[in-house]
Amino acid sequence: MKNPILPLLCMFCLFLLGCDEGTATNAEAETIAGDAGYQVGDTATDFKLKNVDGKMVSMADYKDAKGFIVTFTCNTCPFSKAYEDRIIALHKKYAPKGYPVVAINPNDVKESRKDSYEHMQERAKEKNFPFPYLHDETQEIAKAYGATRTPHLYIVQKQQDGQFKVAYIGAIDDNSRDAQEVQKKYAETALGELLANKPVSQASTKAIGCTIKWRES
Amino acid sequence: MLYQRFHHANFVVKLFQAVNLLLTIRIGFIATIFCFIGLYAQAQQVKVVKFGELQKLRTSNTDTLYVVNFWATWCGPCIKELPYFEAVNKQYRNQPVRVVLVSMDAVQDLKKVKAFMQKRKLASDVWLLNETDANSWIDSLEPKWSGAIPATMLFNNRRKQYHFVEKELKESELQALVKRFKP
């Protein structure tokens, strides 16, 4: 026998719980860029940033791309370093399918000396980066996207009108420390779904990372 | 006869000496153990925890201000602000304020964290969160947290107070926050 009261009662209880949460926590949060940045579904701005080869790079330059794996990363963060090879692998696998990696270093040079343009050039050469490694010197792009940590991924999908829609924000996978121990490849799953024209099942993930070194205001 | 008795007495003395020596060694041994226990109690240990333990702390219903800082040995800005938390820990030692430094280092790096703790003589509680996939727990703790560290939360559940900061704190900022919330 179906009782129509029961689900209603449940909902009412949940509602009460929700109310309690709201009044009880008195919650406050201060974050630097967390609230200001993009959410999944937003339109991402294009950029024009200097690559390690001296040329300026924009997403609009790539006529054939279906989208991009915009990766905020840097030279210095141990997590970024731990992910370098995995970012290279991601590019090698997905660039031919229309989703190249564009890496952006947003760290302020004064706060993090080894993230200077020259050090970026060195690192790109050492690791033989197959993707552009751009310097976000003014930090405007990181702020517009709402990036807070390195590495921080934004997978954007090119729309018919040429705009870039944010399809995924978050981590590469679930184990920064050990690539061999990875259980969930968050970014690859999202890319696979995008390529199959399916909705992205987990469009936002969190990971521990180094805070972006913001310029002292 | 006399010789024999003398010999016997000598034997007793020797026996006594031996027992005494053994006793001294034993007392020394016990004293050493107690010394170590004392040291152990004084030098803080790194407590390896799963997320459940952290969640328990976050929901504990005591009239205590918890100051929980997320850091790692590899995180420059975190190390810079650690002394400010240590200062709060010392300053409010006799008040219901408890500082917990939760390391985001991998559990494989526990030795590194211990060495760091000893080198810096950290007196606050140090935990190491043994979870690999931050995505599995961050949102249950604080949905506004992107995962960047340093990050700090202050809360007193009895007084329904909660404050979260995802940035490096200046000493004056931390002091002001603790003053604002301390019971």
From TrEMBL, chain A:
Taxonomy, superkingdom: Bacteria
GO molecular function, one term: antioxidant activity
Entries under SUPFAM superfamilies matching the protein: Thioredoxin-like
UniProt-recorded name of the protein: Thioredoxin family protein
CDD domains reported for this sequence: PRX_like1
Record Gene3D superfamilies: Glutaredoxin
Residue ranges constituting the Thioredoxin domain according to the UniProt record: 38-192
